[in-house]
Amino acid sequence: MKICRRAIFNSAHRLFRAEWSDEKNLEVFGNCSHPNYHGHNYVLEVCLEGEVDPLTGFVMDLKDLKEIIREEVTERFDHRNLNLDCDEFASVIPTTENIASVIWDKLRKRIDQQYALEVILSETENNKVIYNGR
Amino acid sequence: MKICRRAIFNSAHRLFRAEWSDEKNLEVFGNCSHPNYHGHNYVLEVCLEGEVDPLTGFVMDLKDLKEIIREEVTERFDHRNLNLDCDEFASVIPTTENIASVIWDKLRKRIDQQYALEVILSETENNKVIYNGR
Amino acid sequence: MKICRRAIFNSAHRLFRAEWSDEKNLEVFGNCSHPNYHGHNYVLEVCLEGEVDPLTGFVMDLKDLKEIIREEVTERFDHRNLNLDCDEFASVIPTTENIASVIWDKLRKRIDQQYALEVILSETENNKVIYNGR
Amino acid sequence: MKICRRAIFNSAHRLFRAEWSDEKNLEVFGNCSHPNYHGHNYVLEVCLEGEVDPLTGFVMDLKDLKEIIREEVTERFDHRNLNLDCDEFASVIPTTENIASVIWDKLRKRIDQQYALEVILSETENNKVIYNGR
Amino acid sequence: MKICRRAIFNSAHRLFRAEWSDEKNLEVFGNCSHPNYHGHNYVLEVCLEGEVDPLTGFVMDLKDLKEIIREEVTERFDHRNLNLDCDEFASVIPTTENIASVIWDKLRKRIDQQYALEVILSETENNKVIYNGR
Amino acid sequence: MKICRRAIFNSAHRLFRAEWSDEKNLEVFGNCSHPNYHGHNYVLEVCLEGEVDPLTGFVMDLKDLKEIIREEVTERFDHRNLNLDCDEFASVIPTTENIASVIWDKLRKRIDQQYALEVILSETENNKVIYNGR
Questions:
Q1: Domain boundaries, position B13
Q2: Distance from the CA of F34 to the CA of which of A41, C129, D84, E45 falls in 20 to 30 A?
Q3: Is B45 a catalytic residue?
Q4: Would an 8 Å CB–CB cutoff place D56 in contact with chain E?
Q5: Does residue A120 sit at the B interface (CB-CB below 8 Å)?
Q6: Which residues of chain F have pLDDT under 50?
Q7: ipTM of this model?
Q8: CATH of the domain at D37
């Protein structure tokens, strides 16, 4: 049984590599490399796979999962600039792929190993990534 | 090839264990344990995996799948109180996990074994479960 | 300038008139009259029309509007049975129309008269009502 | 007859008044005042009201409206920092209200006066504003 | 009080004027003039404004409105070619504006004059029209 | 890591087998067999699974994927009649299953074999198929 919990965070970011020229950054990252940042309403789904507890009928109490997502993701990234405010992206470009990977790593440390973990992260209604740690 | 059909049912429910105190129920189930019930617009997706019939171009005729979902799920649960009206939840707490599991069992009996079966059930826009029988 | 804030509450309800027979209730209200209640994820939009404050750029601070909606609507109706738990519906049938009207009355007392007030309430993805007090 | 065309732009912004202290900005604008910006997927709907041309069956050719929206809104604001990159917000705080007002002014100059003009701008799935110039 | 009911119909259509050349049709209607038709999932919202009946709590019984929409709109237009199968569009180009206008006329004849009537018709997630008979 | 890109195309189609009688076609395909075609807003999600490039933080540049989808799918099927205009369906009934399969084959030829490929195609909000080539 897999359970999924949705959360949203609104962040600024920019895609660029400091060691590349502006031209090279523009060529690779397009207008996502714009120097003064832009932003998104990121929609996150966190999915856990595990056994249903016969006493509660829950795979995991969603109140607990909601609180872990708040502490690890929303409090850190919501209304923040991922490049400037978040150490996690000091040397990691905040592409949707990398943000999903960082979120997965953070959640993996907090969620019991009995659960398989998957994160789904949408940057826009047209783009999303799915990551399960492999 | 996997095909999915969506259906919606609107039900009342309550999460509680009769052998637990009210305090214990409140601690575990929060305001979902409220004695007079609350309710949801449940959104169900039923997914079948199988071969495409070369004559029809269908994995399964969705008219048939729609009818099976109506008979097994919508007619029984829509505009009903899951705890009071549905024998399926006489001794099973109607968490999203357990409702999905009950629906999977009902549909599994009606859908040919050539098809793998998965159900996705959303309780709110923030919570959903995915179950494939394992 | 009109601003709108969305909120969601999950409630049980039943449509019936005590002075009518069960047959009459069934005829008028269909399966919404089912005795053991059913429920919905109600989606509420609260819209205020007023002038933009040139200092803040706000018609109204949405943090304040969000808090008023929480106190007047969500805390009272979410995870509740509208018929049994909410005095507002002691002698008022909780149709979408009447729920919207009750919410409008509650909010109107809390929101400064400089603002025109409108509420939009969806019961399902197919049904909604819009009410502005007239 | 009213016609509406949707467009999306992804921008960074920050709400603050330079002449206010950081404390005052935080008190009024909350975490929207965070110094390093955050961002949103803004969803814009542009609605025109006018007569249907009996020859074309159009109020206005949506290809033309789409192009005007692209030139006036998307090209200027998408993947930009509203505070730093857009002169329109040099002395105007980029609240949803003010962004809608700026967009309305820009479009009003480009759209024939025979059409009434309204813009609907969503910042998140919970917040939106509606502006028709009055 | 305004109530709205949603319905969906899936139709083929083509935008062109028989008395115009293919070049002129292509210039005005773009790829919507393609000779072999294309199609859409049209999303219709029908809104009625009227008084709430104090006995039922309804502006109008939505079961009745649903049935009228089925008879007048869905049965005629769903899974049909608007140009070839529907007399309503024999001399009327099936633009979203004109389809909305035709639907409004049909419904107006069936819905009591005590109710103001508005139809909202979406052709795609980016385009919609709103028509109230004026 | 899996990345997904969404695209939409609006097409007419009809489900029928030329060697079957009209009665047989109606029995199997229902009103989807209607002779003059109907249509849909098809929503396509294309998902690639592969490694994240440590230099760019991308599994694949979505600008490239977007362009491949445009060339292979949108340009061919959007505002077209799948039965009449598209050779791909000369001897293949354009069911959602078969359209997804045709799209998968087209994209598979254009997308590097290092990526696993999956397509998700929705015909309506109630029906979709998922295909990964097996």
A1: 2-131
A2: E45
A3: no
A4: yes
A5: no
A6: none
A7: 0.95
A8: 3.30.479.10
